[in-house]
Amino acid sequence: MFLIIFFIFLIIFDITAQRILTKKFQIEKGKNFFYEHVNDKHKLGERFLLIAMIAIPFIFVFMLGYESIEYYFLGVPCIILIYRTYMEWKYERESKMYVRTIFHFVTAFLLFISITVYTAPEEINKTYQAYAFSADRSISEVIELTLEVEFQKHVFADLMHGTVYMDGEDYFLTSFGKERSDLMKDKFKRDSYNYMIYGDHPGELWISKDFNEMAGQTGTYNELYFAAPAGSREEAENLFKKLSESQSD
Fold first, then answer.
1. Global pTM value
2. Kindly report the CA angle at 77 between 74 and 79, in degrees rounded to 5?
3. How many domains in the chain?
4. Which domain-ending residue is among 89, 118, 147?
5. 31: pLDDT confidence band, cut at 50, 70 and 90?
6. Residue 171 lies in domain
7. Higher pLDDT, 139 or 172
C-alpha cells in the first residue's frame, strides 16, 4: 500500500513539476504526442537500450530468479533518462528540454530508491511461548520456540530464510525452492506464510504476516504439532487450525 501511495504521489509531483518548468523556462511542447528524439544518433541509442530492456528480463527470470527483477525495471529507465538528458543537452541545449528530462529522471530515481528501501532485508529474532502436542497425546507441554530469520519484501514475493529453535532442535527454514505461484499467493492472497522446515524431523511451518503467531508440525509417524503463542493444548489446536487454514485459496 505504501508503494502505491508513493507512486501516485510521484506521478502528481512529476506532472506538476513539468508544467512549472515548461512555463518558467519557456520550453516548447513537441509537435507530436510521442517523444521526439534530437537526431538519428539519439534515436538509435534509445532503441538499443529499449531492445536490451526487453531482452535482459529473460536472464533475470530464467537464470537469476524473478524476485529481484524490480531493480531492473526501475534501473533501466533511469539509464535511458540519463542518456536522453545528455543528448538533449549536447545537441539542443538552447531548447532546455534537458531540464524537463532531468526531473523525469529524479522521479524515476526516487521510485528506484523507494523500492530499494522497501526490499531491504530485515532481521527477525523473536522468542515465543509455544505449546507442543502429539496426535496420540503422548506429548503435551509448554516449550520455548525461537525464530531467527532474514526477511525480505519484494514487489512480487516475500522471501525468508533462517532457523527455528524448538525444544533443543534446530530447523532450517527457507523460501528457496517454493513454487513462484505459491510465493505470490502468500504475498497477495493469503494471511500467512508457509514454508518447509528441515532438520532431524522435517516438517511444515505457518507464520502470520506480522510474525506474532506461528504453528507447525514435524515428524513422519508420531507427528508433533506446535503453535505459539499458546499455553494450553486447546489454544494450540485452535491457532494451528487458524494458520494452516489461512493457506487455503
1. 0.74
2. 110
3. 2
4. 118
5. low
6. 122-245
7. 172
